[in-house]
Specification:
The structure holds 2 protein chains of 2 kinds. Chain A is mostly helical. Helix content of chain A is 78%, strand content 0%. Chain A has one domain. Chain B folds into 2 domains: 96 residues, no CATH class; 72 residues. The two termini of chain B are 25 Å apart. Classes of the chains: A mainly alpha, B mainly alpha.
Chain lengths: 172, 182
């Protein structure tokens, strides 16, 4: 199967499973591109994920950078469209029906059902990415401090990412 | 829900508005999207934005990306959705493609590698902190803690795929939520 087709199928499938956003699919992206297909090493995946976070834009960019690494510009475009188009099409269709019955109780039920799943998926993704990137005491410390700062303060993520990169550059 | 503006927005207005959101959206596009749509261009009122955002949040996919498509669709149909999405994604995609190329060329040089290792550790922390923020209000109920723990166990311990995990957990979580909300 051609690489572009593989990218399209992989991210197209994940698009409709991204409950609460693209971060919910990071565990599955890792499983597919690191564990099953060996496209990148765990260390490379953590770095690509980090780069996609440091760039501006929505967090579907993890699909863009995996696509770009595997198949250049066409790969980036195909992977991003596959990640974006199915969920957007669903959102458009539902929002058109939603204008007719806006207080539908199904939405409260669905939201209440999805929130704990999203929490579990994002936590799983965080543990997986932390395992990939934390190779010594300094990286573990960076992860914990940034996690605490994100949880407790409103410091802009870009400063936290920049601080982590600077510490790595100086002390690793 | 209807857009505040009386006449529909043009394709180029949709493109340029969301282009601004994409290129300035460091560390998440939601704050920039809210500022452009509500404060600067007044395409939606605060309440309209919140309603649309909360709908997009209960659907799969990136929230702001979904909202971009819905807003574009309302004004110019499918081509409007495409114009708005193209605006949102154009600059970030070009930047990512350039960074990916640089990574391929220089990613293994020692100083770059060290900086990237620190960056990756920080990104992991960002994700961990975000998970905490999502979990904190949700984990006030024991059933929610149970659902999250089940997801963690299926993914981390049993290494199940995401589709299979969802297939197992979603019906259970829906049934629990249904019982509580009705």
């Amino acid at each position: 199967m051609s690489l572009l087709l593989q990218l399209a199928l992989l991210f197209g499938k994940l698009s409709l499973l991204a409950v609460g956003g693209a971060n919910a699919t990071v565990s599955e992206i890792t499983r597919q591109v690191v564990t099953l297909r060996h496209w990148v090493t765990p260390e490379q995946f953590a770095q690509l994920y980090a780069i996609s976070n440091a760039a501006p834009g929505p967090n579907v960019l993890i699909s863009t950078i995996i696509g770009a690494q595997m198949a250049g510009i066409p790969g980036a475009v195909v992977a991003t469209l596959a990640m974006v188009v199915p969920s957007c099409a669903l959102a458009v269709v539902v929002s058109m029906g939603f204008e007719r019955h806006r207080d539908a109780s199904w939405r409260r039920v669905v939201q209440a059902a999805l929130l704990p799943i999203t929490a579990g998926l994002v936590l799983a993704a965080a543990i997986i990415v932390a395992r990939q990137s934390d190779t010594g005491w300094l990286t573990v410390a960076i992860t914990l401090v940034v996690a605490a700062a994100t949880f407790r303060t409103k410091i802009h993520p870009l400063y936290l990412l920049g601080g982590g990169a600077a510490l790595g550059l100086l002390f690793l | 829900m209807r857009a505040s503006t009386a006449s529909p927005l043009s394709h180029s207005a949709l493109f340029t508005g969301f282009f601004q959101v994409g290129i300035l959206g460091f560390g998440g596009v939601l704050p920039m999207a809210r500022r452009m749509i509500v404060d600067e261009r007044r395409w939606l009122s605060q309440t309209e934005f919140n309603e649309l955002f909360s709908l997009c949040q209960s659907l799969p996919g990136a929230n702001v990306t979904n909202l971009t498509a819905v807003l574009g669709m309302r004004h110019q149909g499918v081509t409007g959705a495409a114009a708005a999405l193209a605006g949102l994604l154009a600059a970030p995609m070009v930047i990512i493609i350039l960074l990916s190329d640089l990574y391929g060329r220089y990613g293994t040089l020692p100083p770059v590698r060290h900086g990237l290792a620190g960056l990756a550790a920080a990104a992991a922390g960002l994700l961990l902190g975000t998970a905490g923020k999502i979990a904190l209000p949700v984990w006030k109920a024991w059933r929610n803690i149970g659902v999250s723990a089940l997801v963690l166990a299926l993914i981390l311990a049993l290494h199940l795929s995401l589709p299979l995990t969802m297939l197992l957990v979603l019906p259970l979580s829906l049934a629990l939520a249904w019982r509580v909300t009705s």
